[in-house]
Every structure is written in structure tokens, then in C-alpha cells.
Amino acid sequence: MNQWLWAATALLALELPLLAYACFASRLDALVAYEAAATIFALSLITLTEGFHRTSYTILGVVASVLNFTGALVFVRFFERELDP
Length: 85
Hints:
- There is one protein chain.
- This protein has 85 residues and is mainly alpha-helical.
- The chain is 84% helix and 0% strand.
- Helix 1 runs antiparallel to helix 3 (27-51) and helix 2 runs antiparallel to helix 3 (27-51).
- The radius of gyration is 15 Å and the shape is elongated.
């Protein structure tokens, strides 16, 4: 195992507390936890591509970032009435 795979493992381990918090938090707090978890997930995909020396797989991290952004927009749009103070 090289340092990229160790870094990816550490990043994936950071996902667990965020996802556990998102399960029990309010919707707005869960959105913040989801955004943080998705960012860490995209970074872990990119570190995995470096660890396996497959630079063509970097597109997976880019697609995950775009899907994260659009998913957050859909979430906010769907629950916009409930998120207003």
C-alpha cells in the first residue's frame, strides 16, 4: 500500500461520523453533513485513482462533485418551505 491508499482509507473513515450525524440531525444540519461527506468522498475517489495509478478514473471524482452540487440544489428546492425561519 502506498501513501495515496492510506490517505483514501483515512478519508473514507471520516465519512462514518458525518453520515451517522446526518441520520439523526435536522434537515438543514443533515444537508451540511451531506455536503461535507460528499466532498470528502470526491477527494477519496481522486486519491484512490492516484493510489492505483489510473489517472483516467479521475473523472469519477469530478462527476461525484457535480452530482453532489445538483443533489444539494434539489434537496434545498424540495424543502425550501421547511428551511425558511
